[in-house]
Queue: 2 jobs
Job 1
Amino acid sequence: MAELQEVQITEEKPLLPGQTPEAAKTHSVETPYGSVTFTVYGTPKPKRPAILTYHDVGLNYKSCFQPLFQFEDMQEIIQNFVRVHVDAPGMEEGAPVFPLGYQYPSLDQLADMIPCVLQYLNFSTIIGVGVGAGAYILARYALNHPDTVEGLVLINIDPNAKGWMDWAAHKLTGLTSSIPEMILGHLFSQEELSGNSELIQKYRNIITHAPNLDNIELYWNSYNNRRDLNFERGGDITLKCPVMLVVGDQAPHEDAVMADSGGQPQLTQPGKLTEAFKYFLQGMGYMASSCMTRLSRSRTASLTSAASVDGNRSRSRTLSQSSESGTLSSGPPGHTMEVSC
Ligand code: BEZ
């Protein structure tokens, strides 16, 4: 039987007032499918994976992840990891519009660009955090390169290709709606959109006036042409790493309303997501309980149990539990944590 190994954790102190945050460095690399831009925050930490993010359609890494990664309680987590934020081609700030007839990569090809990023940075493993199209891309990457993915946080993933009915509905909507409205309908619920909160106004403004709207439409088309990821519980095609599945309870396709978040929980509920992420990392052996808030610590004691050993890292099993972080329910043993927020 494989032996349980203690993971050495060196906790770093949170930033003191007046201390400057870590610098970001943006790079571009050439890949067989064109160039890809990514931004690195922090420095590599020995024996730790990088956190690698992939954003949804209509957004870039900043508009998708800044509210989460700059959330106060998130700092104690991310300071222990280097972060790589990938921008889908043509989505980076200041990206020129692709020439007419440019063949935008499929989601599978976008996933195939990730090894070039990791090779360039000389990073061997990641914990992926993806939203919508970005979640699909990271899941595809994990299926193709299971040995390099230690964990996945998949927010609002739709693993299936559009069915015949979805296509008909999509075509009908396209007759009466603009591309920005269709993308907003993908990101947010109708209730949120008609509520027209400050957040919705902000994102409607960003997308409607995006100078790279033509590029965004290409990413949108690739998303709509995705194929099935084909994973089945207990089937041959499965994710081999621990997965935290997150569904915003107002996500456009989520019927079961359970808590009080929106279609984009990383924007509307960064606190809940941060706490769930802490549990997830702790289950993977990366967060000492001393690093967690007192409340989280006491809850985690009853939430997580070291269940299976895979390779040399202990994996956790998240038991069915309702908490302020939303509802957590059990998935396949040792691997899945489901969060609704
Ligand atoms: C980060 O610290 O990883 C981060 C900062 C700003 C935007 C997105 C991510």
Note: The pocket of benzoic acid is lined by residues 41, 62, 65-66, 69-70, 78, 83, 85 (CB under 6 Å).
Job 2
Amino acid sequence: MSRYNELLQAITVREGGREVHDPATGELIGRVPVQSAADVDAAIDRARAAQPAWAALSDEERVGHLNRIADAIEANAEALAELLSREQGKPLNGPNARFEVSACAAWTRVPAATPLPVEVVIDDGETYAEMHYRPLGVVGAITPWNWPMMIAIWQIIPALRMGNAVVQKPSEYTTLSGLALAHVVNTVLPDGVLNVVAGGGDLGSRIVESDLVEKIMFTGSTRTGKKIIEASSGSIKRLTLELGGNDAGIVLDDVDPEAIAEDLFWGAFINTGQTCAALKRLYVADAIYDSVVSALAEVAARMPMGNGLDEENVLGPLQNDMQFEIVDRLVASAKASGARVVLGGDPDRDAVGYFYPTTLIADIDPHNDLVVEEQFGPALPIVRYTDLDEAVRLANELDAGLGASVWSSDRERARELAARIQAGTVWINSHGTINPFVPFGGAKQSGYGLEFGVAGLKSVAQPQIIQG
Ligand code: NAD
């Protein structure tokens, strides 16, 4: 039996449960269990029981486990990538399924290799105080469907490194990916340290409401993030919230359009646009507007979209019907407003799969729905500007503030502009290029708290001062 089939057999149920279909073909992939509130409570109990022994291991022992998790992910990489591609829709190639699985290993090895020593806060002869980072206990990890394996790893691995046990709930749209990843991780971990529950938002809220869970790592929509803030208030739970984005990119008048076109394209269309920190609205200086639009259109037109298992494709279907309808509605609003369709914009409704064609919309009103709402799909609005201050004002006027980018051949000019943009990260001449050493988190209603790097480890620990 292939490794893919072994994995599928280990995580699916023969009867009952819920059917999972491939978003490219509609084909049945398997059936996932649908669990209950009682299963969530049992998972939390298992985590609480396992956590003290896990925390009692030395840091070196926990690091050893994490490195063996990365080895296990690498050993199962092709099977995981195939499953991810079939369930999520993202192609094996391009910055997609194989890339995501390799990122899982990288985002495991880096926290494993990042030390968090005791910090001496003051030692002046009179006062001595040090800062320790203790385990919190049980961490709840709740993930979305766009990068279902990588985001789970972002939440789980730092929590484990700091001596916590974890209860994870994958999105109901990508349960198989969550279960498969956890199955591989659990070949390494002691029982009960990582527990996964399969089901919908009701199970997520059960985790959030539990008094036995100390911290929630949540990645998903701003709407759900607000519910989590309310539901967690009873226990003053710690929260890291990575929420929705509507990232702006500002292209200055001094760039070479051809030189930046491919990076602009992937900044916007990575994972077929279903990425939190993707470029979702582009503001381009009037002097070079037409050249940027045509260079981008030339790149976009040659990127193949299709079934993710087909090696040539780099763009795939949308993951689900709901997202297809959102993208379709927003593009319809742009078209109705008289904006110019440069590419795409006209999905084949009789075709199988949730394929929405790569779409570029130019000369669009900066307040059209496609600009001000998060499309989370392959449709990029391109706004023309003549006054840079006005472009900054437009970039900053929304509630979202996850990422942004500035494109210029003058680094100093770009840095000055970056400082004026309200976003958790501003990239210069790229967009969405995350790195496991570099903290990542949102501004405004894109959430709070940081992941990655030393800051990410601190966020899943209880700081404790020892003084005297
Ligand atoms: P979503 O909020 O609908 O669901 C996310 C998860 O929350 C799912 O597992 C869901 O079952 C669970 N959930 C739903 N209701 C809940 C509740 N009341 N309590 C607890 N859990 C609950 O989001 P989605 O549609 O899966 O993801 C897309 C969104 O996520 C986009 O807005 C995107 O920008 C955002 N996102 C943000 C980041 C980031 O790092 N900031 C990364 C990826 C995605």
Note: The chain has a mean pLDDT of 98.
